[in-house]
Structure formats: structure tokens, C-alpha cells
Fold this sequence. Notes:
By secondary structure, the chain is α+β, with helices and mostly antiparallel strands. The protein contains seven helices and six strands. The chain has helices spanning 125-133, 148-157, 163-190, 198-217, 223-250, 254-390, 394-471; strands at 44-48, 60-66, 69-79, 84-91, 100-107, 114-119. A six-stranded antiparallel sheet has the order 1-6-2-3-4-5. The longest helix is centred in the last third of the chain and has 137 residues, at 254-390. The protein is rod-shaped and about 190 Å long. The two termini are 59 Å apart.
Amino acid sequence: MNRSLISNSTQHEDIQTEEKTYQYRDSKSNYNGLDESKQLEIKRKRVTIKSINDICTADHIIFNRLYGIEHHAIVERINKSMNTVTVIEYTLDESDSRGKIKRNTYDFSKFDFADKYIYEQEFDDKEVVERARSRLNEQCYSIFLNNCEHFATWAKTGNKVSSQVRNAANSGLVSAAAALAGSTARIAAKSCAKFAGLAIVIGECAIDFYNVCDAYQNNQISSDVFREELVILLAEHTAAAITFVVSALSSANFFFGLLWTAVCVTLGKCLGKCFGRLINYCQRNIRKFISKAYKIAKSFVKKVFDIAKNVLICAYGIGKAVVKGVYLIGKEVLKGVYNIGKEIVKGTYNCIKEVVKGVFNTGKQVIKGVWNTCKELGKGVLNVGKAVIKGEGVGEAIYNTGKEVVTAVYNTGKEVVKAVYNTGKEVAKAVYNTGKEVFNIVCNTVKEVHKIASNVYNSVSTCVRSFFKSLW
């Protein structure tokens, strides 16, 4: 992304350019859920800011703040009417001796100078400002690993890079160490053996620290190894400095002083290195112990959570099975009662129907018998009358008449008895069928209830077995 501050190409003569490519990755960093995998290649150039109109929101600006040291910040907002710039920066003051990312407002006119970096690849302005805001109130300042330029470059590209640290490591540190070593050597030569080894000690210390910092900046060693190496170097060279001072003060002879100083410094370095390794060993073991205790506690909490979860699942399964079983049993019982009532009503209806039919048939036969009897009686009376008129066979006519009447009464009684028998037979059959259907319904209902109870038992058993299986 290119944003030119000066439109006329002839005005670029005073622009200082810096085009370098860095790559830095810290896998442990994570700021409020930001995606740390988003890292852009760093190619940038430095331009001079002529006025406040040349500053834009989300710019990476550089200005002089203390003793000529360059300070870096991210622009959050600009008030052109007040000629002020509000930035988010890593700052040091009396209340925050460890360094803290804060929001400050500056009068642009009071800047000794002001430059800015223009990146070829950078996040959009809104994301740059949000990234900077996500680290407000952070207190993890480190001049070599997490300074103001590291912060500003990270907000723009996702990479932590400081050109000041790299330039100091590449040139200033070695030059200073060499100059200090040469000066110290001259003083040591003039003072015999008292300060002969000081240049060597300081120079070696500077070179060792430079090598470790350079290896870390180039991702040759991890952050854990870097910290351990710094502890060892600090202990080693502190012990070497102490033994050097003691040895230098204890002998004034040049040659013996050199030998004595070399022995003492070597011994001090060995002791310091051992002490540094001991510190790292204790630190690692403490971390391992804390990590192990954390894992045990995490595993215990997870186990308790799993048990509680399984208890709830088991209780839910049992409750579900029981409720379902009770519902189905109640449904089957109600269904059975309904069917029994239905069959009883049906049987009663059939009984009443057969009784009514029997009564009807009986009445029909009685009427038919009475009709036949009356018919035969009338016929007999007619025959008797005929015989009386003719004057012959009167007794035989009366006999025949009585015989026919008796036969008609007998047949009538026989049909009535037969009709009553058939009615009783049909009623009994209807009662039997009703009882049979009721019994079948009761048996089927009991069978379904037993089946449902078996399913409930199997469901509860499965839940309980699953729960105890999860415990082991």
C-alpha cells in the first residue's frame, strides 16, 4: 500500500529512504484474539513530515523525544485546528517506570523533527488503529525485544522489528566494545597488572551479548533459549568482573598480575556459568512443576466435569425412559378400558337385541297359536252346528273340535317354549362373546404394559451401564 506525501517528484531529494526486509515471529503473542498469523513483508521508506497536513490516521511516525533518541508511535487521530496529534505509544514516565502503552496528545509545533514510514504492504488504517488500541495499558517493555518501534511496526505489519536495535547490534555495540577495550588496554598497560584484563572482559561480554541478541533476532534460537542464555551470560560476566576487581587489587606485579587475573577471571566465569545454569535449572523445574500441577488440576477438573456431565446424561436418560414408559402404560390402560367398555356396551346391546327379538318371536307364536285355536274352535263350532242341523255326528264333531283346539294350544305352547329357548341361547351367546372379548382386551393390555415396562427397564439399565463405564 503506497501513500505519497509529496505529489511533485522534484521534492523527493530530501527524503531519506530505508528499504529492508525483516521477518520476525513470536508464536506466544496473542492480543485480544487478533490473528497473529497475519504477517506482511516489511519494505518501507522514510519520508520527512513538512506539516501536520502530511500526517494521516494510522501513520507510523518518528520524532525526537529524549536525548536525541528516536521515538515511534501510531497516529490515532489528528486535530488540525488545534495543531495536535494523538498517538498510541510505548512511553516511560514517573508513574509507569516499567513502560506502558498509553494514549498521548502532542503539539505538532514542538516536535524537533518528524518523519514517517511508508510501507509497501500494511494493514488498512482501521485495522492498524484497532491493533494499537488492543494493547493499551500493556506493561511488557523491553528495549531489545519489545520497544516503541517493535510496537509500531507490529501494528502496521504484524512483525516486531526495530531498526534501532539491529543497527546498534550491527555497528554501535561492537565499535563501542572495541573502543572501550582499546582504551582499557592502554590504561591497563600504564597501570601494570591492575586493569590489564578489563578490556578483554568487557569486550568478550559485549560480543557474547551481541551474538545472542543477533541469533534471537534472526530466529536462530527460541525465546526460552534466549532468556536462559541471557541469565548464563549475566551470571558469568558478573562473576568474571568481580573476580577481576579482586585479582587486580591483590597484585601489582605486571606478569604475575596478568597470570593471577587470568586464573581468577577464568575461575569466576566458570563459577558464574555454573550459577547461571543452576538458576535456569531451578527455573525450568519450577515451570515444569507448575505446568505438571496445572495439568493435574486441569485433568481433575475435566474428570469431575465429565462425571457431572455423565450423571446429568444418565439422569436425563432414566427420567426420559420412565416418563415415556408411564405415558405409554397409561395410554395402553386407557385404551384397554375403552375397548372393554366398548365390548360391554356392544354385548349389552346384543343381549337386549336378542331379548327383544325373542319376545317378538314369542308374541308372534302366541298370537299365531291363539289365531289357530280360535280358527279351529270356530271351525269345530261350525261343524257341530252342521251336525246338529243334520241330526247326526254331533258327538264326533264336538270331539274333533276339542281335538283340534287342544292340538292348536299344544303347538302354540311348543312354539312359545322354542322361542324362549332360542332367546335364552342367543342372550347367553352374546354374554359369552362379550366376556371373551373383555378377557382378550385385558390380556393384550397386560401384555403391552409388560412390554413397555421391559423397555423402560432396558433403557434405565443402558443409562446406568453407560455411566459406570464412563467412570472407568
